[in-house]
Design a protein that fits this description.
- With 586 residues, the chain is mainly alpha-helical.
- The chain has four domains: 107 residues, no CATH class; 157 residues; 134 residues, no CATH class; 128 residues, no CATH class.
- The strands form two sheets. A five-stranded mixed beta sheet has the order 4-3-5-7-6, sandwiched between helices. Strands 1-2 form a two-stranded antiparallel sheet.
């Protein structure tokens, strides 16, 4: 594709993405911005404060009562810090940071559009579609990516947008299938794991494909694998030094980039790189040279870090698991879409599944001619779809990958010599996908459980309230339902902390709050509240079963409780702050 056509293609994708972003602002409520973005903002604000330290992940405003150690990477924080520091030279620091929260997501949207355009062009190949048809196809493709595009709205500062960019960059590196592509694969894979472990299945799949290509001596594979291995090794070292520091590199964090994952990343990339240099024998010899040390590395890592064998969420206690984690829809399978009547997502999923299924004959054809790049990117899209079936938190990834094959499908369907076969494939794929997904309507009945006190505690009953009473109190630890913790933190003066927020590492604090507000046993309640100075609850018109949640029922109804001394608010507000008299607490 010439430079003019490439520029036009990028312009279409970027303009369509901007229209999707603007449409998200139309109703004044952003689709994706949530509590993750709020905590990221607090983390960056604390980092920029006098108390913040680059290598210290402690967030003292969450005290469970133990301090909260954030698992989130400084790699995501870095651009916001740099932009805010630069803008602070010409505007107040607070405004500079808010501007950074708007600027960087839009810059990432441009990068997203560039990656999508490059990938679509390479996958599309030499199709002879008219220019206007190609542009319309690219616009339609981008519309199908709307859920992924909405990860780049201003204010969306969570790490998922970075993970999408890493996945697309990895796919582009695979499409290039040269040394530069290998470097891109290695850098994107390392960055993805530094940011978070959600990208681990995609990195594992991509490198497994590289290993197979190397063993089978696919054309160009050795150069790609060597470059990818070297890039991952170097990026892992640089990332560990830059974002963790010495103590962080040696720490064991089973849910974040740390010693176990550094060992695996350095080990596997080192094994791959050495095999590329030293092993040039028969395929079975190459396979053994890779498999034996890799299995040994896995065994040694598991033996050295046994706690991580339980998975990244082992920290969640049974009470928090039942009352919080199990109620999060994105942690369940696609059947939760049916139970929750999320029909628009089901329709989108059916369309993406049908597109990938229809393209399967082309994937088989590519496999026969040993064209690894096309096949591996297709495999990444299928993997993303399968992961979403099992756990819907992954939905942003197939939405970013699967639509890339829509232009491919359209080009195939418009080819006169192939029209007979493509039509059959499309009809069969659409019929099968819709039959399966429609059939599930009859198998999975809608299920909307009645809201209970746990749901009330998880919602922000304090939104829009006046928190000025906090300015009259001595800073201390506040015990509050996890749903209102964020509102308190954004309003409280320096020195206050909350017991819990809805994040897995805060589950010790959530457990204490469930015991304090739900337990009917006084001793359990006193033990749960022992480390805290205050209790905070907002009045609510919702009726709460006093037998199920004695303390929460009383306080949310505006009543007092023995041992809790009400702090008088300077202004009328439903926000209630109580000082704990531990000796009199019942």
């Amino acid at each position: 594709m010439d430079a003019v056509s490439a520029t036009r293609s990028f312009g279409v994708v970027f303009a369509t993405s901007l229209l999707i972003v603007l449409a998200d602002f139309a109703d004044g409520s952003l689709f994706n911005v949530d509590v993750d973005d709020q905590l990221r903002e607090l983390q960056i604000r604390f980092l920029l404060s006098e108390k913040g330290s680059w290598y210290d992940p402690t967030l003292p405003f969450i005290a469970m009562p133990d301090p909260y150690l954030s698992p989130w990477s400084r790699l995501v924080d870095l651009p916001y810090v740099v932009i805010a520091k630069g803008l602070s030279l010409v505007m107040p620091a607070g405004q500079a940071l808010q501007a950074a929260f708007w600027i960087w997501p839009l810059v990432m949207l441009a990068i997203f559009s560039l990656l999508v355009t490059s990938l679509a062009t390479r996958l599309f190949g030499g199709s002879a579609l008219p220019q206007r048809t190609r542009m319309i196809t690219l616009a339609l493709m981008t519309m199908f990516m709307a859920i992924a595009v909405l990860e780049f709205v201003p204010g969306r500062i969570d790490h998922h947008n970075v993970q999408i960019l890493c996945l697309l960059a990895m796919a582009l590196g695979l499409c290039r299938w040269d040394r530069t592509g290998g470097v891109l694969i290695g850098l994107a894979s390392a960055a993805s794991l530094i940011v978070g472990l959600e990208g681990l299945p995609f990195v594992a799949f991509a490198y497994s494909a590289l290993v197979i290509a190397f063993v089978l001596e696919v054309r160009g594979a050795r150069a790609v694998v060597w470059a990818a291995s070297l890039a991952m090794f170097a990026a892992t070292v640089v990332g560990a030094v830059a974002f963790l520091g010495g103590p962080g590199m040696l720490s064991v964090q089973c849910d974040a980039f740390s010693a176990p994952y550094i060992a695996l990343m350095l080990g596997f990339s080192g094994i791959l790189g050495l095999c590329c240099i030293l092993v040039r024998s028969h395929a079975l010899v190459r396979l053994a040279a890779l498999a034996v040390p890799s299995v040994a590395l896995l065994g040694a890592t598991g033996f050295s870090f046994p706690a991580c064998l339980a998975g990244p969420y082992a920290v969640i206690d049974p009470l928090s698991q039942a009352y919080w984690f199990d109620r999060i829809w994105q942690e369940h399978s696609i059947l939760s879409f049916y139970a929750g009547e999320r029909y628009s997502l089901i329709v989108l999923f059916a369309l993406l599944a049908a597109a990938l299924l229809a393209v399967m004959p082309l994937a088989v054809r590519q496999a026969r001619v040993a064209f690894a790049p096309w096949l591996v990117v297709y495999g990444l899209a299928v993997l993303a779809l399968v992961l979403t079936i099992l756990q819907t938190r992954y939905i942003r990834f197939p939405v970013a990958l699967a639509p890339l094959f829509l232009p491919v499908l359209l080009g195939w369907a418009s080819d006169g010599a192939e029209r007979k076969y493509s039509s059959r494939a499309i009809i069969a794929a659409v019929t099968l996908c819709w039959a399966i997904l429609a059939g599930l309507f009859f198998v999975v009945p809608p299920f909307q459980p009645a809201a209970d006190v746990v749901d009330y505690m998880a919602s922000d009953q304090c939104a829009g309230q006046d928190f000025s009473v906090l300015a009259t109190a001595t800073p201390g630890r506040i015990a509050a339902p996890n749903g209102v913790g964020m509102s308190i933190l954004f309003s409280a003066p320096d020195g206050f902390s909350v017991a819990a927020l809805p994040f897995h590492r805060a589950s010790p604090g959530m457990k204490r709050m469930y015991e304090a507000f739900l337990s009917s046993d006084s001793a359990t309640r006193r033990a749960a509240l022992a480390p805290f100075d205050y209790v905070a609850v907002c009045r609510s018109p919702l009726k709460v079963d006093a037998e199920r949640a004695p303390l929460y029922a009383a306080l949310s109804a505006g009543r007092d409780w023995p041992g809790l001394v009400r702090m008088q608010s300077p202004h009328e507000s439903d926000f209630q702050l109580f000082r704990i008299d531990h000796a009199a607490l019942r």
